[in-house]
Design goal:
- The chain has about 190 residues and is an alpha+beta fold.
- The protein has four helices and seven strands.
- Strands 1, 2, 3, 4, 5, 6 and 7 form a seven-stranded antiparallel beta sheet that branches.
- β4 (about 85-95) and β5 form a beta hairpin.
- The radius of gyration is 21 Å and the shape is elongated.
- The two termini are about 20 Å apart.
């Protein structure tokens, strides 16, 4: 299973340390006084992430991730976290393969899905949105969560969005089985493998 919480422990302390750095530097008795303007960094901050960086990070977190694929010009990763299979799409990619934003996506197939359930989900949830996709075999919900990437933060910036995605994906699947006024419960949800 995807190790969510253990990978996030360092994130709790990081903001406090970053905010304290200027104060610590100003009170360091061994620091030399500033004599002029501070020079701008000579190296440009890295913008965006590559599919290879995201894949390596997900594997490090415990997921099984296929090699990046490009289908009809769209680059994606297929991810299995031990409980579900889902995709990450890459957008705003430049010539070097660095992408400015990503989208988590999954399809959920279940007979109990209806437009009313999808609308209820979208009304009650802020981040992960769903829509009902026509499928003659069985009702299919597509879930999507867009993440804009920040310059210079590296792949660690995916920690929180990935936790949000996994929790809300699981919450959506659970909501499919929530009690309704129906006489019988819907059949189990099947997440597509390909």
């Amino acid at each position: 299973m995807f190790r969510r919480l253990s990978a996030l422990a360092p994130l709790v302390a990081a903001p406090a340390l970053l905010m304290a750095m200027p104060a610590l530097a100003a009170t360091d008795p061994g620091a030399s006084p500033a004599t002029g303007p501070v020079a701008a960094p000579t190296q440009e901050a890295v913008s965006g992430l590559t599919p290879a960086e995201v894949r390596a990070w997900l594997i490090e977190m415990g997921a099984t991730v296929e090699e990046p694929q490009t289908i009809e010009g769209q680059t994606l990763l297929r991810v299995n976290d031990g409980s579900a299979t889902w995709l990450i799409f890459f957008y705003g990619c430049n010539a070097t393969g660095r992408c400015q934003d990503i989208q988590f996506a999954a399809s959920v197939v279940a007979d109990g899905l209806s437009l009313d359930r999808i609308n209820t989900w979208n009304r009650e949830q802020r981040f992960v949105k769903a829509y009902l996709q026509p499928n003659p075999a069985a009702p299919t919900a597509v879930l999507q969560y867009d993440v804009l990437l920040s310059t210079g933060l590296g792949v660690e910036q995916l920690n929180d969005p990935t936790v949000v995605w996994l929790e809300l994906l699981a919450g959506f699947v659970e909501s499919v089985f929530a009690p309704t006024n129906e006489i019988s419960a819907p059949p189990p949800v099947t997440l597509p493998v390909n």
